[in-house]
Structures are given as C-alpha cells and as structure tokens.
Amino acid sequence: MGRLTTHVLDTALGSPGQGIRIEVFRFSGGERTSIGEVVTNDDGRCDAPILEGDAFSVGEYELVFNAGDYLRRRGVAADEPRFLDVIPLRFGVADASQHYHVPLLLSPYGYSTYRGS
User: What parts of the chain have a pLDDT lower than 70?
Assistant: First the structure.
C-alpha cells in the first residue's frame, strides 16, 4: 500500500525537528487544495503516514514546513524576516502504490530534501 511520510532533522543541532507544523496540499487542474496538516513528534516524524491507501493518489503534492516557528521556539537568533520561515516542497507522485518519504534536513540558513524510503 502506498503512503506519504516525512521526517525533519535539525542539522544545526543534530537532533529531530520536534513540533513542526506541516500543511499538506494537493494540486489538481491548477487548483491548490488543502488536505490537512500534521505536527512532528519528539522524533521529528509524524505519528502516522500523512496520506495512505485511497487518500494517496497519483498527482502533485506540496508539504509546507513552518520552520520559522520552530526556529523561534528553539531560541535561534535571526533578523526578521527570517531567511527561512515557511518552506514549501512541491513534488510529484507517479506511482501511488509506493512509499514516498520526503524528509527535510533543516538549519537556520539552508535545507535539503530527497525522496527516501
């Protein structure tokens, strides 16, 4: 069964990104539709897949990581507006029967992502 998961790692601190709110969107016919939101747990993961089964289909998705709120809570000093505040990751799902793991490696001045498993 296909599913969508994520994991946030704070590479500046070498620890999981705890309590990060992630908004989830689907694109269809040029329309961006909100399909929910999740919050990372103490391990920087979500307690369950973001989407799975019939709720997960071929198409384009976007995960919006509210990183600025997390960095403020961690006491990371920065000028406002922050260099990184809201991080949108838009990606395509070609085979909804597979596992799409979309991690975010985060620091106050950079991030990276990839498709994991």
Answer: none
